């Protein structure tokens, strides 16, 4: 059984202290993500990146709920410097058009095709944020027929509403994901 690690949106704008949409303690998961990525367990290690145009629909200026973040080519869109990119074999951009939310790494990206072509049957999903992009990616991976594992030591939640992260974990487990 070939496995892949999906590192979701571990970018400057999602991490403290200077991220435009920093997830509390989001930077503290780098050690675990790097440990997983370099473990040799995965046939493929993929990092996703929010890659928004400056006029993205999710931005408050355009009627969305979020501050401007992860604008294509900006410092905020770069991967966090603590992420060891040496193990990452592929980068998948999400939300790259004004009208694409990009919560799921499968939304109008080549991810599913790439995983199937490589014979991947199981994915481990980690990164930021548990209650948005991690959750939606894990749920879409299940819908695509992959076995899904989540590592809660390697993810953090935005928690717009208290408990959103735990509810997201519960939703992923209820849908068939397994916790490592």
Rg, nearest Å: 15 Å
Q: Helical percent range? A: 10-25%
From the helix content, strand content and strand pairing, which structural class follows? alpha/beta
Distance between the termini: 17 Å
Q: Give the overall form.
A: globular
Characterise the protein shown here:
With 180 residues, the chain is α/β, with parallel strands linked by helices. It has helices spanning 30-37, 111-117, 130-143, 164-175, and strands at 2-8, 44-50, 90-94, 120-128, 147-156, 178-179. α3 (130-143) packs parallel to α4 (164-175). The chain is globular, with a radius of gyration of 15 Å. The model has no long low-confidence stretch (mean pLDDT 97).
In short:
It is built from four helices and six strands.
């Amino acid at each position: 059984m070939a496995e892949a690690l999906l590192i979701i949106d571990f970018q400057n704008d999602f991490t403290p202290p200077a991220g435009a949409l920093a997830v509390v303690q989001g930077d503290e998961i780098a050690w675990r993500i790097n440990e997983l990525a370099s473990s040799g367990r995965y046939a493929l290690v993929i990092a996703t990146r929010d890659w928004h145009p400056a006029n993205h629909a999710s931005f408050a200026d355009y009627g969305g709920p979020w501050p401007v973040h992860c604008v294509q080519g900006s410092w905020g869109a770069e991967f966090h410097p603590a992420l060891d990119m040496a193990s990452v074999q592929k980068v998948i951009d999400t939300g790259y058009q004004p009208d694409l939310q990009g919560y799921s790494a499968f939304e109008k990206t080549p991810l599913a095709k790439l995983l199937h072509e490589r014979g991947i049957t199981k994915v481990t999903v980690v990164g930021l944020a548990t209650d948005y992009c991690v959750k939606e990616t894990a749920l879409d991976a299940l819908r695509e027929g992959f076995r899904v594992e989540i590592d809660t030591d390697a993810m953090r939640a935005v928690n717009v509403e208290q408990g959103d992260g735990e509810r997201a974990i519960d939703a992923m487990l209820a849908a068939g994901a397994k916790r490592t």
